[in-house]
Amino acid sequence: MVLLQSQYRKAVQRPLARSAQSARPSGPPRIQSGRLAFSLVPQAATLYPIRMPISDWFSRRERYTRVAEPSAKRPVPDGIWSKCASCNQVIYQKQMARNFKVCPHCQHHFEMSALERIDMLADDGSFVELDAGLEAADPLRFRALKTYTESLEQAKARSGAREAIVTGTAMLGGRPIMLGAMDFRFVGGSMGSVVGEKVARAFDEAGQRRLPVLMVASSGGARMQEGMLALMQMAKTSAAVGRFKKAGPPFISILADPTSGGVTASFPTLADIIIAEPGAFVGFTGPRVIEDTIKQKLPPGFQRAEFVLEHGMVDMVLPRELHLEIIARLLDYLSGGA
Ligand SMILES: [Zn+2]
Questions:
Q1: pTM of the model
Q2: Measured CA distances, 151 to 114, 143, 159, 260, 307 (Å)
């Protein structure tokens, strides 16, 4: 619609001018308690369009209209994409799940929960959990920044697990096995009385039933909140492996990132075949403590899977995608079936 200038003045400018006059103060600014008694801003703002030609009025209006420009950096919706901590590339989470939580760009092996690990290794619907009801007590009434009981409750809520290991019987490619998987999200996968007990029971049960054992370790070590009781689990689980070995079936362990402290120094490294995941930390004490103790700089890659393989501490470094195939072949070979 074309609006003549006279029509425009009648329709728009005059009412504006009237409203401007009504907003204008009737006298000079009065000072009240050191402040202006009225504001001059409404007056200036309402008078402004009166002096403008109609063409400017429309062109200038654009300056007051701000349309948000489409941003090149759209926010990443939670739960769909994630960023690789190693190569910084964005990864589609469904793709990562299909890839056993391995980065498709740099092959970084992400942490897996115990249940994810069991889901990957066990045939569908074959896993039967053992000792699911075992839960830690707090015999020392340990308290640091928070009590041990509080730590346990938070760990349960965060991980959905009841303890730092899940054990049970399963089938792996049609072969019956005893399977255990540690969960680093539960108090750092630390080994306390319950983890030790579940590991010992799993080995004893496997020995009686002549089942091969596959254990996946992912742990910061012994659980300090249980003090000496946690350290005793190193001897207890090692003794259980000793009893199991007399029974004869093979024991294979997978060392995931990180495997350290009292867990490295007990059952996982007593296996017949020790497999480490690429890049996994495998060691007893952290490199900073060692450097401080021996006053020497450690070589690059120290205590990583590839380094400990070179130094004879593990038998192979195996990418996750090959675990099922190679472990099945190893079980057949060690059981005399191939
Ligand atoms: Zn990556």
A1: 0.76
A2: 19, 10, 12, 20, 34
